[in-house]
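Pipeline run #58 for the internal structure catalog. This entry was flagged by the ingest filter as a single-chain record with no existing model, so it goes straight to prediction. Upstream metadata was stripped on purpose; only the residue string is passed forward. Reviewer on rotation: M.T. Logging verbosity set to normal.
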Amino acid sequence: MQLNSRILLLVFTLSFLLLTSQDLLASGYDQPEDSTSIVTSIEKNHAEEHLPSAFMVIPFIILLAMIATGPLFYHHFWEKNYPIIAIILGLITVIYYLIFLNETHSLLHTAAEYLSFIALLSSLFVASGGILIRIEKKSTPWLNAGILLFGAVIANIIGTTGASMLLIRPFIKINQDRIKPYHIIFFIFLVSNVGGALTPIGDPPLFLGFLRGVEFFWVIKHVWYIWLPTILLIAAVFVLIDSRNVNKDEPSEKFSGKIEFKGMKNVFYLLIIVISVFIDPAVISWVPSLSPLPIGIREIIMFSMVYIAFKTADKNILKANEFDFEPIKEVAYLFIGIFATMIPALQLISHEANVYRESLTPGIFYWATGVLSSFLDNAPTYLNFLSAALGKEGMNVSLPIEVAKFAQDFPIYLSSISVAAVFFGAMTYIGNGPNFMVKSISERSGIKMPSFFGYMIKYSIPVLIPIYILVWLVFYF
């Protein structure tokens, strides 16, 4: 029965992506002139030969299927060969664009996005790995919920990746005598995803919106009253489940109640990384662009922090944190395949959003952005639907003044897209970068995490979807 459910979900995912693009085999569009986004093209006349074939979604589906089934059915083969598989499937898409479409813009744009993505994740991963937090308190549902809510708040200051890497190890240690997979999964829900919905620093989609012209404090102003009940509802479900987890063999040792914090210099490194997020020509006019290089000053600073933070880290802290590079290595390889293979899917979705934009309501934007952010990278998905939403009003996503005006005049549309892109990243392991890193760290700590579909069937669908439906009914219906 469990296998049939996995197969049905896989078929549903494949069917959804193919059906949304089935009428595109005979239509197409030119690549956008703006090198910062593929979505600006919806304001142009599109050339038929530049639209990717719907069949080019297949490499992405294969990669998704192998990520889901590999650790379960052919674990040793997958563990040894996943870097090769991800790269080969990505190369299929790259070769198709180079030879059959003779088009390099999307490839260069995706390469730049990937390097920004991995620079941010790797720098936060290494910098937080040099910080040791010990909490000498007895594990209780309310203490655990407090840690999760604290992580959800600071995710808006140091990003979901920074908050996840800072807290996942102490969270595992404080629950070491009663740890279950659901502890980690609710950590992914709250700290790695939903928590970071209030500021552009919190999650990449919101930062892209900031770069496009959305005011920095717009999100917190228009989303806090959605964010707060959502995290409280998820935390309440966690407390209910955790209260039933009683360890009869739990040691009767006394706890001092002390909280220990080591590695203050790495807090300074985290501050540099967060500040560097804004060192971009789109934010600060005097910052030089390194075009045509696929990286900028920001990425150079972040990659430098990877080296400096690791070389200057206290070795005893790294040992206590059981720090190694395997989690970020897994993310780096898998997401290079995901970023490459998802290019055709994103372009087809962008076209569809443009075609049907006049009939798209805030509720449709919410569900379309959310469902696709669960399986595709939520940052470009956010941009695709933001572009379609602006197109409804005759505006251009490439003009910051028009994006700012849209945010002011039509907040319900931007809110639905922003909330969905961040919230639904928690639906799968690949919905957001920190998810895989948290999963990998947990597995290396001996926690048996559910499979890709097990995560969805047992946890994200029954826990999150009812809450997300409630959000839709109250705010976007």
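catalog note: The two ends are 34 Å apart (CA to CA).
catalog note: Residues 444 and 468 are 31 Å apart (CA to CA).
status: ready for reviewer M.T.
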